[in-house]
Amino acid sequence: MKLYNIKENDEQVSFGQAVRQGLGRNQGLFFPSELPKFDDVDALLAEDFVTRSAKILSALIGDELPAEKVNELVDNAFQFPAPINQVKDGVYALELFHGPTLAFKDFGGRFMAQSLAAVSDGGKITILTATSGDTGAAVAHAFYGMEDINVVILYPKGKISPLQENYSAH
């Protein structure tokens, strides 16, 4: 799969390059050049969250990662539920607060951590992030214990809640 920089369309990279690089030139985000089509959407929706996620990711990245590695990535990233609950007739809510730090950012943080581990060439990596909210705790937890990946999280002094500070300290 090729991804292109939405600010500079001529910059195209692989999934692995996009994960390692983060942003494109001029701070552009990467977006897939093509989106896969699924013939049986109902069957896909009937799958559990992890299986569905692995199938979608495999379709997006093609043969860049073997199926076993994609399955491992998704299994490790999403080890918590994402239930859909009916609020009323025709209205549903996707609960994204069941992750380890109780923040929806657990989904992105853990997917990022596992993706980076999957495409790593074995060299040391340092990630620098700045936040005033839940991102820090989610990223810290997602990368905790991962070899060869160090994370530095910058917080504005006195601007985060005691709960966030406590979660980020572990």
Automatic annotation (TrEMBL):
EC number: 4.2.3.1
Keywords associated with the record: Lyase, Pyridoxal phosphate
Gene3D superfamilies: 3.40.50.1100, Threonine synthase, N-terminal domain (3.90.1380.10)
SUPFAM superfamilies per record: Tryptophan synthase beta subunit-like PLP-dependent enzymes
Cofactor(s), names only, from the UniProt record: pyridoxal 5'-phosphate
Residue ranges annotated for the Threonine synthase N-terminal domain, each copy included: 8-78
Pfam families assigned: Thr_synth_N (PF14821)
GO BP annotations, alphabetical order: amino acid metabolic process
GO molecular function: pyridoxal phosphate binding; threonine synthase activity
GO cellular component entries: cytoplasm
Name of the protein in question: Threonine synthase
